[in-house]
Amino acid sequence: MTSDKSWTTIRRRGSSNEFWNGLQHFLQMAKPFINDRGFIKCPCRHCLNNASHQLEDLESHIFRNGFMFRYNQWIHHGEPATANAGTTVAGPSGGIHERDEMFDVLDDIISEDADEDAVGGPSSNEQYDDLFAALRSELYPGVSSFSSLNFLVKLMHLKVLNKWTNKLFDELLKLLKLAFPKIDLVESHYEAKKLMTKMGLGYSSIHVCKNDCALFWKENSLKDTCPVCSESRWKLQSGKRLGKNVPHKVLHYFPVGPRLKRLFATSKTAKLMRWHSTGKSKDNDVMRHPVDGKSWKEFDKRHPQFAGDVRNVRLGLAADGFNPFGNMSLSYSMWPVVLTTYNLPPWICMKAEYLMLSLLIPGPQSPGKDMDVFLRPLIDESKELWVHGLDTRDAAYENGVFRMRAALLWTVNDFPARSSLSGWSGQGYRACPTCNEDTPSMRVIGKTAYFGHRRFLPTNHHWRSNLQFDGRTEQKRPPHRFRTTDILEQLRRVKTGIPRKYPNYGGVKQKRGDDELNWRKKSIFYELPCWADIELKHNLDVMHIEKNVCDSLLGTLLADPHKSKDTNNARCDLAKLGIRQELHLFEDGVS
Question: What's the rounded Cα separation, in Å, for the pair 220 and 207?
Fold first, then answer.
């Protein structure tokens, strides 16, 4: 005879007599199957029948952590195994529902929070009550194989894939309700989204000063005016607020920690999170993943405790601006900040489904050097992940819990975005971040030109003595490598300026002193404890460089009037430098 298992799905265990009575019945059934040492397998959501305990410990484990999902045939605790074991799940009302794939999804989410449930008590998982209610609910009377939650998740997935508007989604729900009056579905997209957020991976909306001075966050969350420029937090009309408080700007922040924990919540991705250690190339001369690079290896040497656990996460950050209204004659720049997880193999870590959107910075203007204001939530969380870490369930091996830490290794950007993130301006006579104060440059017609590239050649290379480049031989050696102490000393001399959108800024370009070099600010990344020790902090996006160089070369070779660099100004510059006389312009007497 099959026992009633509906009590195993009850969430409010502390206040439920049904759960307590069902648990006592289960323990009585399991008592004859205790082994010779007095132990029996524990089916709580933390142990998952992988560990054995004494009977009294079994009772406290199940009461504290809850009964594991998918254990429908109690073959380790008194029930005989049957052919269809594991294919049905008991519903709370006593009815048997066919296996729903959403049980696996919720099992991963609940197991991820098992320790928090143990600390917080039986009622700490009440946030999942609505999800379980939708999971136990039939989509339509008589359709037991498709739960209401399963259908809603698939419908939301279709909305994202096909870029449906919220209004279209609402109209579709109305049509389904009209065609199938007994269907169990939410009423609107708002309700669907509200239910989905309970599965985790939500986001926070943070108001921003209109001048990008500060965030209305943490200690500023209750203020109505900016603590820097005293501008109102809200949009005003004739000096008064609108009917509803509408902020000038809203920053969307997607916490990183829960998303990293979710990667370890399923056995498939949890195993892949070790690839950088188990699957890396054995050939020292081959680089197919950042783990084979010098910067990664130096980081491991300087932080052996972090490198000791291969499950600790290495992250890369990319940011760039785009116009979401590209099909309209509207100037607008919105900046997404995306993180990639380098623990994963190279053929996976760059796939869209494994990239994590962490910040969505609003426009309409580029944040520029005020980028640090928007990065504050991400940096604060990154410091917590480095110093304290998060208790995380590893589903790949024994479902154990470990302390996951994370480190930001570098950024990947084009050259303008690199300037916003690093603080070193990409314009002017010292624009090269590698050459630093020793950047060779000159002023030509209409722009600044950078030369001296032959200094990177071997000292005996014949091009060093060739006069056709700039009329001189090249004797300089490559620029010396600046140590961390050198960079920090330069940053110490940088003065803190007011935000460029500040009302008193006046639109006048602030001139830097000679001792500040090309530094505009000390980047917020230096607040990360490990950032100063990283050798390669900022990477340039090869795609942009390859495209721009290729366009220039092909445009010049094919004499494209729009992309060629062989212009009249370039010929005049050659004449001023006294080189390449065969390319100088001359008057032919024709007007």
Answer: 10
DSSP 409: E
Strand partners, 344: none
Distance (Å, whole) CA 195 – CA 200: 10
Those residues with Cβ within 8 angstroms of residue 423's Cβ, 6 or more apart along the chain or in another chain: 369, 491, 494, 519, 520, 521, 522, 523
Q: How far is CA 570 from CA 497, 563, 591, in A?
A: 37, 13, 21
User: What separation in angstroms does the CA of 455 have from each of 315, 430, 480?
Assistant: 34, 16, 11
Three-state SS at 296: helix
Query: Under a CB-based contact definition with an 8 Å cutoff, are residues 456 and 450 in contact?
Result: no
For residue 320, what are the CA distances in angstroms to 37, 411, 562? 62, 11, 26
Name every residue whose Cβ is closer than 8 Å to that of residue 580 and which is 6 or more positions away in sequence: 468, 574
- Does the pLDDT of residue 525 top 90, yes or no? yes
| Whether 385 contacts 294, CB under 8 Å | no
CA distances from 206 to 149, 228, 323 (A): 30, 17, 21
Q: What is the DSSP letter of 183?
A: -
* Cα–Cα distance measured from residue 528 to residue 408, given in angstroms and rounded to the nearest whole number: 8
Closest CA to 151 of 194, 104, 101: 101
Cα 25 to chain centroid, rounded: 46
**Which ranges constitute the DSSP H helices of 7-128?**
17-30, 55-65, 102-112, 114-120
Helix axes 166-179 and 189-196, enclosed angle (nearest 10):
100
d(CA 18, CA 416) in angstroms, rounded, equals 63
Structure token pair of residue 583: 């390319």
The pLDDT score that the predictor gives to residue 329 is 60
pLDDT band at 529 (very low <50, low <70, confident <90, very high): very high
Amino acid at 350: M
Task: Tell me the C-alpha distance between 361 and 212, whole Å.
Answer: 11
pLDDT digits (tens, 9 = 90+) for 52-74: 888 878 887 887 778 887 777 78
The conformation of residue 563, written as its DSSP 8-state character, comes to T
Q: Kindly tell me if the per-residue pLDDT of 131 is higher than 80.
A: no
Cα separation, 258 vs 268, whole angstroms:
17
Which helix (H) or strand (E) element contains residue 443? strand 441-444
Enter the DSSP assignment of 416.
Answer: H
- d(C-alpha 530, C-alpha 533), whole Å: 6
- Compute CA distances 566 → 131, 272, 453, 454, whole Å: 65, 50, 19, 21
Choose among 532, 443, 440, 518: nearest CA to 479: 440
pLDDT at 263 over 60: yes
CA 497, 536, 340: angle at the middle one, nearest 5? Answer: 90
What does 300-344 look like in DSSP terms, one character per residue?
HHH-HHHHHSTTSEEEEEEE--B-TTTTSS----BEEEEEEETTS
pLDDT band at residue 311, thresholds of 50, 70 and 90? very high
